[in-house]
């Protein structure tokens, strides 16, 4: 069981409570927090969403979400947990705010006026502005924290509009823009391993690193979320959100300290140094059959795959390509960050290409893997590649926390180290702008493959480490 200070009583309003994200991620994370004793002594979760859902139906919905996406509800925790659930659907945008206003009032009466109020917007980005306005209009913004999912904006222009609208209602200290890739245990090891170990700290630069690959292929389909996906695509869903934030974690300069504000500053400020993407260094793809899915427009030009070469304009990284790749219906599901090290100067000629790689697996509980060139046993001098693998679950007795569990706990305790910042996001959209305005021609790829062949050239001379 994790040990941490218990947060003060909280009222948690979950918008989009019957939607896909809440079902898969937010509700299971909330239940895990309850199981691990990481929620406040007392709390309420008020689900909000379109239409009216009877209280018992909502409780049933939460139970089914846990059955399907875990952790399985046991009698003891569930018995307590279900008592804290409420549903207050519909009409929040109306002048009187609908049933949610009364539900919050009631929860305040139960928990005390000092209870913190947390709004969690598990809704598509198009709904962010209206919901934020309503939160302000109904007097629910004061001292509240508001959680926004990614993508925060869909272009430079829409980001500015959203940012303005949010700051009309909220102070920056109340805003929690989350990106769950930052909440992954192994992502945080990118800075812990680096700054806590001389050997890695010393090699974290262009003198030692030849290329960085952030590679997140997925076998996953999009059939159960076609509406969201067809309006989003791989560039917005993954590239300029998750993969950019992970790239920032790799590329950042040392923070002034490991305090949350300094960590956040180090990560977010490096994004200003991302060179705007050159559309000639980006490959976009769409898997064959995508347009035949129910809910996808026949002539859809949505990208389900993207591979990009990103450059980080700092003395530390000048000339080192950051290769980013992700896509749906690919051959494997993996989430890896690899630092490919330069060959040492010395007596050896050609070394095996996949030796000398420090790899972080972000998926599952996370793993660190150092690949080294070593002598193959036997007579003579043949080289082989050995690997030292550290599953993060073996680092200590604690269980690795799923990313949403960590992030929601951060919101409850006010830890902002993994929250994205508006200056960083402004630079994200600046770097994405050339690609969004001049999109490369979409290439079709076969489901189960590694995507369009054109992406191979981007990764030359090493090639993509996965799927070779
Ligand atoms: C989500 C994307 O944010 O991250 C999905 O919308 C993607 O398209 C998912 O599949 C991948 O993350 P994870 O950690 O759930 O595998």
Helices and strands in order:
Layout: E1 10-15, H1 20-35, E2 43-48, H2 55-69, H3 75-81, E3 85-87, H4 99-111, E4 116-121, H5 128-137, E5 145-148, H6 156-169, E6 175-177, H7 185-196, H8 198-203, E7 209-217, H9 226-230, H10 233-251, H11 260-270, E8 282-287, E9 305-310, E10 322-327, E11 336-341, E12 357-361, E13 367-376, E14 382-391, H12 403-413, H13 422-437, E15 443-445, H14 455-458
Parallel strand pairs: 1-2, 1-4, 2-3, 4-5, 5-6, 7-10, 8-15
Antiparallel strand pairs: 7-11, 8-9, 9-10, 11-12, 12-13, 13-14
Helix pairs in contact: 1-2, 1-12, 5-6, 6-13, 10-11
This protein binds 6-O-phosphono-beta-D-glucopyranose (BG6).
Essential attributes:
about 35% helix; 9-stranded mixed beta sheet; about 475 residues; binds 6-O-phosphono-beta-D-glucopyranose; alpha/beta; 2 domains; Dihydrodipicolinate Reductase, domain 2
Could you please describe the fold and organization of this structure?
This protein is an alpha/beta fold and 468 residues long. It has 14 helices and 15 strands. Strands 14-13-12-11-7-10-9-8-15 form a nine-stranded mixed β-sheet, with helices on one face. A six-stranded parallel β-sheet has the order 3-2-1-4-5-6. Helix 1 links the parallel strand 1 and strand 2. The model has no long low-confidence stretch (mean pLDDT 93). 6-O-phosphono-beta-D-glucopyranose binds next to loops.
